[in-house]
Amino acid sequence: MVELVINVSNIISPLCYSLIRLEPYTSCSFNCIYCYTQWYWDRSSRPSVRIRAIKEFLSIAKKIYTKSLKPIPARLSTLVDPYQPVEEYKRASLRIMKIALKYNYPLIINTKSTLITKDPWRKILVKLADENLALVQISITSLDDNIARKLEPLAPSSTHRLKVAKELSSEGIPVVLRLSPYIPRVSIGNLDYEDVAGFFKDLGVKHVIVEGIRFTRPELDYILNTVGVRGLELESYSLRVIEGGRPLYKPSRLALYGEYSMLSRELAKHNISFATCKEGLFSLHTSSDCCGMYLLKNYALRITLYEFYKEALKNPIDVDKIGEIMDKLCSSGYLCSNNMDEYPKRIRKPFRNHEKKLLRILRSREHLTHVTPEMDIVDNKIVVRVLG
């Protein structure tokens, strides 16, 4: 696996702001049945420290700090839990946190663990938050402990994770709830959305992200049967399948849209922002970015499809003038190919490749409408489509 920067893809490149990832371990002991690590590593192996990832992060953090550049927030992490039990004695994530504190590097921390509330992790986290260098995404699959236990047999219960959210937010640490993987009829269940939003408010949550589950068809069918979901409309996650590869499926965005829209609406009443992850349902977003980076300060943000969506809301975009829109966004402070020369080559080159992919997708109706059902190309103009 390539360290630090996520690989270019038809989904990640146009939609994701947080392209820098820090994977501290080679696998995860929580043994979630939907775990994505099996696509990259042998999930049955015992977790070991990814020394190279830590060294490369130290290198780029130091270079960006020395050159007084705006740092690009890094995700800790995307595939494994950074605070799984092995962290208690290996402390790879703690080393990353200390590097971030020393070199003023912002972190988006994603975890199911309760370890983060213990010292020394908590102490470093508070220091990072005091400098606006950290937000914590608490990952929740279902608010029902019984269901969550079927999906995540060795992870702390949802109840315990929500207590972590309240504990951290009470100390002034920005807390985001990440409902991921989101399963229709299960993640919120039969709960009233108004009550759920009020509950999240009481926890001190600032932002909520939803990301629909995706998996190969046999595994997805198994997971849905495990939690009692039948007759769910599915759609292809990938536009095309590489020969020999296993195609991924996900709940259709129309199947998700109703639940997402109700949740977004109720959260807004409590001033909690909302966004979808890898769904392209931009009309439901109530924040400037999907990860909650706006809760941090002094960071660099790349351009995604969301910025073009907001431009197309004002006026349809002539496909031949995409470059002009790109230049306008670059001049307004976004991180782009033409202003990354001072950044380390290790991240500059892949970021430029992600930008090229974004621009190709903007010029292809087939790709654009697959990435988001809310944008289309009609008569050589990018337009916004209304759902619901």
Described by the principal axes of the CA atoms, the overall outline is: globular
Which runs of at least 5 residues are low in confidence (pLDDT < 50)?
Answer: none
- Portion of residues in helices? 25-40%
Largest sheet: spatial strand order:
1-2-3-4-5-6-10
At the third CATH level, what is the topology name of the largest domain? Answer: TIM Barrel
The CATH class of the largest domain, by name, is Alpha Beta
How many strand elements? 13
Cα(first) to Cα(last) distance is 39 Å
Tally of DSSP helical segments: 14
Outline the biggest β-sheet: 7 strands, parallel
Overall pLDDT metric:
94
SSE topology string: HEHEHHEHEHHEHEEHEEHEHEHHHEE
Secondary structure layout:
Elements (H helix, E strand, L loop, with lengths): L11 H4 L4 E2 L29 H16 L7 E3 L10 H4 L1 H11 L4 E5 L9 H10 L3 E7 L4 H7 L6 H12 L5 E8 L10 H11 L3 E6 L2 E2 H10 L7 E3 L11 E4 L1 H16 L4 E4 L28 H10 L2 E2 L3 H10 L13 H18 L2 H7 L3 E4 L2 E4 L4
Parallel strand pairs: 1-2, 2-3, 3-4, 4-5, 5-6, 6-10
Antiparallel strand pairs: 7-9, 8-9, 11-13, 12-13
Short description:
The protein is an alpha/beta fold and 388 residues long. It is built from 14 helices and 13 strands. Helix 4 (92-102) runs parallel beside helix 5 and helix 8 packs across helix 10.
